[in-house]
Amino acid sequence: MKFYFSPGACSQSIHIALREAGIDFEGINVNLQTHKLANGEDYDAIWPRGYVPLVEFDDGSRHTEAASLLQYIGDLDPQRALIPPAGSAERLAVLEWLTLVSTELHKTFSPWLWQAQTAESTKVACRAKFATRFTELDRALAGREYLTS
Ligand SMILES: N[C@@H](CCC(=O)N[C@@H](CS)C(=O)NCC(=O)O)C(=O)O
Fold first, then answer.
1. Which of 35, 51, 64, 114 to mutate to test ligand 1, by most ligand atoms within 8 A of the CB atom?
2. 148 and 82 Cβ atoms separated by less than 8 Å
3. How many Cα atoms are found within 13 Å in the side-chain-facing hemisphere of 38?
4. Which helix (H) or strand (E) element contains residue 63?
5. Which atom of ligand 1 is nearest to the CA of 30?
6. In this predicted structure, what is the pLDDT of residue 50?
7. Pocket residues for ligand 1 (CB within 6 Å)?
8. Architecture of 2-80 per CATH?
9. Residue 86, Cβ neighbours under 10 Å: how many?
């Protein structure tokens, strides 16, 4: 399995999950500034969406989307209990948070929102959304280390 990642980006979550699951992989570092690999290859030519994480299985199939990959990896070895069983209320809670992070939080951080030419009104609206979302997260994490048990 090949795993395209960039240190400190959202692909970090997949990196952690792969290691926790004990899965062997070939890690390929993508420079997100240049969209190049260490060997000079153009990442956009490999994966036209141009973002990480990207997982390529040995059969050549390619998969993205952190929330989906995390579920998939979590399910690979139920003994490790990395994710609650499908159909349980606990599983629903994990999926809910993963989806919220990828849709409500992650994309509000997207670089295009913070470029110089982005309208100030857009930035103000995004900051207000952050404040609401992070207040909710703070409340959910009050007195506990993790969002779900
Ligand atoms: N929908 C994707 C988004 C992944 C994403 O936005 N990755 C960022 C790093 S955190 C990236 O590679 N950005 C570079 C780019 O879009 O050019 C997911 O949820 O996994």
1. 51
2. no
3. 6
4. strand 62-63
5. 12
6. 96
7. 9-10, 32, 50-53, 64-66, 102
8. 3-Layer(aba) Sandwich (3.40)
9. 11
Residue type, 98: L
Q: For all residues of the chain together, what is the average pLDDT? A: 95
pLDDT of residue 74: 98
pTM summary value: 0.93
Q: Ligand 1: distance of its center to the CA of 6 in Å?
A: 10
User: Quick one: which atom of ligand 1 is closest to the CA of 52?
Assistant: 12
| Adjacency order of strands within the sheet including 36-37 | 36-37, 26-31, 2-5, 54-56, 62-63
Task: Report domain extents, the chain.
Answer: 2-80, 89-141
- Among 15, 5, 1, 14, which residue's Cα sits nearest to residue 38? 5
Q: Whose CA is nearest to atom 9 of ligand 1?
A: 9
Residue ranges for the chain with pLDDT beneath 70: none
Cα 117 to averaged position of ligand 1 atoms, centre (Å): 21
Query: Which residue's CA is the nearest one to ligand 1's atom 20?
Result: 65
Name the amino acid, one letter, at 93: A
> What pLDDT shows up at residue 149?
84
